[in-house]
Description:
Elements: H1 2-30, H2 37-43, H3 46-67, H4 76-85, H5 93-107, H6 115-132, H7 137-156, H8 159-170, H9 179-197, H10 215-246, H11 255-269, H12 278-285, H13 291-310, H14 318-339, H15 347-363, H16 366-377, H17 383-400, H18 407-411, H19 420-426, H20 431-434, E1 442-443, H21 448-457, E2 462-466, E3 472-477, H22 478-485, H23 488-491, H24 497-500, E4 508-509, H25 514-524, E5 528-532, E6 540-545, H26 546-572, E7 578-582, E8 585-591, H27 601-604, H28 606-610, E9 612-621, E10 624-629, E11 642-648, H29 649-656
Parallel strand pairs: 1-2, 4-5
Antiparallel strand pairs: 2-3, 5-6, 7-8, 8-11, 9-10, 9-11
Amino acid sequence: MIILAIIIGILGGFGGIGIRWLIKFISDISFPGPGNILENILAIPWYWILIIPVVGGLLVGPIISFLAPEAKGHGVPEVMQAILLKGGIIRPRVAFIKAIASAVSIGTGGSVGREGPIVQIGSSLGSTVGQFFHVPTKRLKTLVGCGAAAGIAAAFNAPIAGALFAVEIILMDFAVAQFSPIVISSVMATVISHTFEGNLIAFLVPKYELASPYELIFYFILGGIAGLVSFAFIKSLYFAEDVFDNKTRLPEYIKPAIGGIIMGLVALLYPEIMGVGYETINLALKGEMLWYIAFILIFVKIFATSITLGSGGSGGIFAPSLFMGAMLGYFFGSFVHQYFPLITASPNAYALVAMGGLVAGTTRAPITAIIIVFELTNDYRIILPLMITCIISTILSSRLSRESIYTLKLLLRNISIKEGTEANVMETIFVNDVYTEKFNSILETDNFSQVINKIIKGKGPDFPVVDKNNNIKGMISLKDLKEYLYERESLQNLLIAGDVANFNFDMINVQDNCKSAMDIMSKYDFEGLPVSDRGNLNKVIGMIWRKDIQDAYQKAIEAREITSSLASSIVMKDDLPQVHFMEGYSISEISAPNTFINKSIRELDIRARYGVEVLSIKTIKNKSEIIKAIPSADYIIRKDDVLVVAGEIRNINVLQNVD
Length: 659
């Protein structure tokens, strides 16, 4: 893993250098001139400002639509999706297509950043290296994190921020066991960037000063405003995406050109919003900007970035967030410094701090935002106001919108990042393995007194109401009876179970998985559900309880961690057909029985029928061995597959003798 981390760090460092060179190359063609890109844009005829973004859109649209749709947008959600749903597998071509598409988008004036593309390129390289060496899924995800860390480190010359970005945003796990490789990749990318480009300075950072302790009050306020602007940016971006994706009936490859037309029209008035915008940020950091221009540029940048990405352009949201932060901080700093000159620093100090505040508010990664700005300044005096602004911005933005600018995109695809692992594991546990056949039921003809007595003696707070043939009629919960308990004596012969039963509920079938059961329990606020028979969906054959599902989930998590490690060792040691890991238990390789061919693991129900766990599957494809660790329940077993199974030796022997 250390060697692979070094390789990925080197590749990520060169990837960052390569895309910066490519962006500059296309920018020089699009906006030729002796100055920086902003000076060159201001010097060219107005009609070129309209034409060039359209040409860029016409090039980017077909590249993304026909070669790699994953390269559309800002890239980080696609990396997160690959980790959550695909075990870290990213197609190798994504790195190349993302580099081309993003360089064209940015180089022709698209209002996006280069950091997101660098992250996706680095992650793609990390995934490709891992796939080449047949790394197990758990470690492959770590290598994707290594690539993301290398990308951020190469973009900002900030190795600490790169490592934290990977664990805080990409992997979302500060306790990740393979943290060391991520740090090494981040450091190696920084070394490569330093070696070939020197001490690259993205921003002309001013010397920071805290004029007075009272000034911290203004940073609290700045954090709140940054949170509001972050929320506005998130909502604007996804509103634009919704308009272009669902309300614009045009081919996908044409939409970026439409975005280019709108961008060109806006840039005629405010050319500062074209490209990554570092030149304009530096003007704010040097204090060479008018406060009202800074205020206007906040909202123009939100609009321009939303249009560029919403229409299908390729680029990141990191640089636009820094741009908005610098403009917001400069405007706010100008205002407070005018009225409180003795206790406040100059406006450019507020611009620097607000850059971190906007990044924190949009990404919900305050630690990464704090460290990035700190590494840019190398000035410890900025830490206190920076921490205050970033944390307040994150809190307020989170209150207004639960999802970050990254996770909201996944949520719109019906992918819940926060519940992904739990849901995936729950789907592999079936009701048939967890429910209990012993349960207490209430007859629909029982009087109120009998109902109370059965509930007092029974297990759990929820009881199925059935007829004499055990067909479900309703549900009774303790909470349903609260209003009747005070009149128990007078009602005992007047009410029957059918009168107080709740008919608003869903049953669960033995063939369903536990995720479905938990969803129904959450929907109706039940602790238990009646389980129906396969043939008769109205007949109750048992109960499944939330606590039993949670216990089964915990065991499945522990088993997954153990079996994943054991599977990793098995696939590395082909000369060991059997490994004993405790008395009476072993891991063995067996050829797929003939009766298993063309059937799914779910259909065969190997765990329930034979008492063994399928750890991985080796299959021959295109004359090379492919290893699938922890295969899904829907995997179809093929003729030449070799099953790596774990369990009691006697159960494995039975499985080996199956025809």
